[in-house]
Amino acid sequence: MTDWFPLWLSLRVSATATVVAAMVGIGLAYLLAKGRFRGRGLLEAVATMPIVLPPTVLGYYLLTTLGVNSPVGRAWERLFGGPLVFTPTAAVVAASLSALPFVVRTGRAAIEDVDPRLEAALRVAGHPEWRIATLVTLPMARRGVLAGIALGFARALGDFGATVMVAGNIPGRTQTLPIAVYDSVQAGNDSAARTGALILAGIAVVVLLTVTSLSTRRT
Amino acid sequence: MTTDRSRADPGVTVDITTTVGAFTVTADFTASAGITALFGPSGSGKSVTLATVAGLLRPDRGTIALGDSVVADPARGVHVPTQDRRLGMVFQHAGLLPHRSPLDNVAIAVRTGNRTRRRELAGSWLDRVHAGHLATTPTATLSGGEQQRIALARALAGQPRLLLLDEPFSALDQPTRRSLRQLVRDLVDAHDLTAIVVTHDLDDIAHLADRVVLYEPGSTTTSHDLEPDRPDELLRLLRLIT
Amino acid sequence: MSTADAPSWTRRAVGVLVGAAVAMVLVGCGADGASPPGALEVDRITVAAASDLRPAFEELGQAFEAATGTSVTFSFGSSGQLREQIVNGAPFHLFAAANVSFVDEVIASGRGVATTKADYALGRIVLWAPSGVALPKSIEELTDARYRRIAIANPDHAPYGLAAEQALKSAGVHDRIRSRLVYGENISDTFRIVQSNNAEIGIVALSLAIADGSQYTLVPAELHEPLEQALVVTSRGEHGNAAAAFARFLGSPAGREVMVRYGFVLPGEALPTS
To answer: Which residues on A lie below 8 Å from C92 (Cβ)?
Structure first.
């Protein structure tokens, strides 16, 4: 019998992570595209870092900052009665950070591509900046933003290194599909590894097709 | 439609220097009711001046006053945001939102009233630019001239103190240009508007402008009132810029 | 062409947000503790176990569930990695390592119940290759050029890798074959490297070779420090009791039968001559 828990957990974790990364990422993308402030370059570098950092390094930092011996980890434990690390929530944190750069970078490029005259026309018409963002900028940039979110979802679904370090490999609790594939290989369970790998590859193909169609159909 | 005469002619006083990158332009003129044309070759800084009046750019020095209110004066730290200057603006390309209907595009610019009222006013402005029949046509399918009519309606729907037109006809063919030029002239006269139009087309000077501000690269602008009964004035202007 | 008019864009955005909220609620429910405080009976415990134990413990877990009704979930890895996770708060109820020192470190960090520490087995290492590859009769034969890549577990955090390295040094061949060594993450990773022919031969746990049912050459136990495997209960309360029950089960006649079958030497038994 195939154990569907890892797939189900992976979908829940990456869906939540995608929502988190989208909310934070769209805000950051807008700020980076429009804002002129000190530390903007640094902010962009930090938001992009998970793309270039080895996932294990990201996992190490997360374990250090959120672990039971850290101030954040201790505060979490006091608030919720249990450690944050090695829970599905920790997997969500790792996946969100992995997905974030894709939303920020793709979203930022899409926002910068919006014709500034459209925004200027609304500014002249008296609309405050947040109205311009929701009336013009984000609707016009929506394909790029959605493509970034789709890529972020794929990245969140596929994360192994950071997740295994901060959430562990606990079957039935934190064992996501990529980790289950690794574990199946270790156990010599080739058919389970094959099934998991096929599912992950299939989802990746669907996401990439979605991204392609989003970037080719222009308004 | 009733026109609020008190805001119809605030007059605009401009004395500014604006720098964009390595490019600096100094403009010094006054525009009262009617149509003032900023005229000169491409790259002489007309559009930069217009964007500065709109508040989309900040001047390095000088002042901009709409009637009695100073909207820009860097020396005293005054910079009224574009949103609060109560302007209407039309660009060379209409800049309509492609995902909104023409009616919505105009309604967005109406500053008062609830949703229904804004759409009513937008409809009446579409009628006034002779585009009432286009209210629900998909925006992206409109011709250039149709889009400019709607952009004009959008600029006027906010009841602006000042109408800014940045090369509004230059992307259009000659017959369309002529009819739109007439439309602008009629609307300015009908509503006692103050308008500034940026152009490098002598036909605009001949058929649209009440006064012209000449732009020559490297020097401050000069203003000239145009007297319709003295066609030699146009020839003098031509010689000045060639 | 223009695809979306305003209302449908809005509707879609609302749809996405509602979907997101539902997803968050689902994960929120899933994220609640697997060990609800105040539960009176324990129907599941989670055990962190060194990977040499995988075949034996999977069998023991099923036997334990049949006997007690409590199921056992295993997280296998190298002992060093598992120690790291436990010290950082991983919610395991029992830690079965492949050595003693990692267990001591878990106790020192305050995450292990010191009184429950116990030796439960002595491990053995073997030279192993998939059938079809000529198996050396002794560790010295590894210098033969036909063994182009030799897999061992990472000695930094895998006790079986450390034992393999010690054996190579004791036999005096380590320096000569060092450049041919490839390192597995843990002992079952090492086994897979050899099984998939990515190395001609490996030094792996006896238990894994037995589970595979293939040929092997036992490495003399005196060539390395004894692979004393210790365990410690890493939780308290009901789950701690259940974990201690599983540890006792290892030493029961049924448990010993399974462990011996996979080649482990149990406390109180003499080391068989190799």
So the answer is: 170
- B127-168 residue pLDDT tens: 988 888 998 999 889 998 899 999 999 999 988 889 999 988
CATH code for the domain in which residue C169 is found: 3.40.190.10
Contacts with A53 (C-beta within 8 Å, 6 or more apart), sequence order:
none
Please tell me what DSSP assigns to residue A133: I
Using a CB-CB distance cutoff of 8 angstroms, which residues of chain C are in contact with residue A83? 89, 91
> Is this prediction's pTM over 0.80?
no
Considering only CB atoms, which chain C residues are within 8 Å of B139? 2
For residues A61 and A67, give the distance between their C-alpha atoms in angstroms, rounded to a whole number.
9
Q: Indicate the CATH number of B1-84+191-242 among 3.40.50.300, 1.10.1060.10, 3.40.50.360, 3.30.470.20.
A: 3.40.50.300
Q: Decide if the complex's ipTM is over 0.85.
A: no
Between chains, do B101 and C2 touch, taking CB under 8 Å as contact? Answer: no
Q: How many domains does chain C have?
A: 2
A80: domain range?
A: 5-216
Residue C114's pLDDT band, with cuts at 50, 70 and 90, is very high
Say how many domains are in chain A: 1
* Of C122, C138, C147, C125, nearest in space to C210 by CA: C125
User: Distance (Å, rounded) from C-alpha A74 to C-alpha B47?
Assistant: 59
The predicted structure's pLDDT at residue B114: 87
Sheet with strand B78-79: strands edge to edge: B23-31, B12-20, B61-66, B69-73, B78-79
Q: Taken in order A104, A106, A112, A118, is the CA torsion positive or negative?
A: negative
Residue C79 marked ligand-binding = yes
- Give me the pLDDT at residue B173, please: 87
Residue C215 domain boundaries: 125-223
* Burial group, residue B112, by CB count within 10 angstroms (0-12, 13-18, 19+): exposed
Task: Give yes or no for residue A145 having a pLDDT over 90.
Answer: yes
| Chain B: closest CA distance from residue A24 (Å) | 25
Check if the beta carbon of residue B96 is closer than 8 Å to that of residue B150: yes
The Cα–Cα gap between A21 and A62 comes to 16
Given a contact as 3+ CB pairs under 8 Å, which chains touch C?
A: A, B
- Side by side, the strands of the sheet bearing B211-214 are B87-90, B162-166, B194-199, B34-39, B211-214, B222-225
C98 shares its domain with C176: no
Overall size of chain A counted in residues: 219
Residue of B nearest to C8 (CA): B99
Give the H/E segment covering residue C152: strand C150-153
Identify which of B104, B140, B141 has the shortest CB distance to residue C6.
B104
- CA B20 from chain centre, in angstroms, equals 21
Q: Are B94 and A121 in contact (CB under 8 A)?
A: no
Give the CATH number, domain containing residue A142: 1.10.3720.10
Please classify residue B122 by burial: count the beta carbons closer than 10 Å to its beta carbon, then call 0-12 exposed, 13-18 middle and 19+ buried.
buried
